[in-house]
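Tutorial, part two.
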Amino acid sequence: MYLIVGLGNPGARYCYTRHNIGFRVADRISQAYGIPMGREKFNAVYGRGLIHDRDVILAKPQSYMNMSGPPTRQLAGYFKIDASNLLVIHDDIDFPFGKIKSKMKGGHGGHNGLRSLVQVFGSGDFARIRIGIGRPETKEEVTDYVLGRFDQEQENLLNEVILRAQDAVEAFISAKVG
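Running the prediction step on this input gives:
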């Protein structure tokens, strides 16, 4: 079984922010594979279904980004999912908008959601899909930037970015199957 976690912040206020790209990818996967995200446990919304005939839990922690670790750890423990079968989808300010990179393990790189996950799992030995949101072009504070919305040009391209992130999730599952 696999645990796929999209990172973001709960609530309508944050729905379309850069920081919530992980939630948006999780929502797309939910639609594409018919995985209803209606269950709630451990301060997370989740659903269970199949991707490439593999059992997956698809989740969105509802504890705000900087506390994503505890709900994710509790779900992993409840479903007996090892960190090696955890995939985290998150925004990455260090990549230009739209760049997607898979990484099998690593540190938190200053990302508060990853920092929380590394802390509760005791290491960064879990996979992640990093989705570039770019850096602010002005002297805007990083917090304001990640909690801001994509500009119109980016929003027009976002559907393609989300589809490529979904492809990366599918590639992760396929690689684990093979």
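The CA atoms of residues 7 and 108 lie 13 Å apart. In part three we will examine how such features are distributed along the chain.
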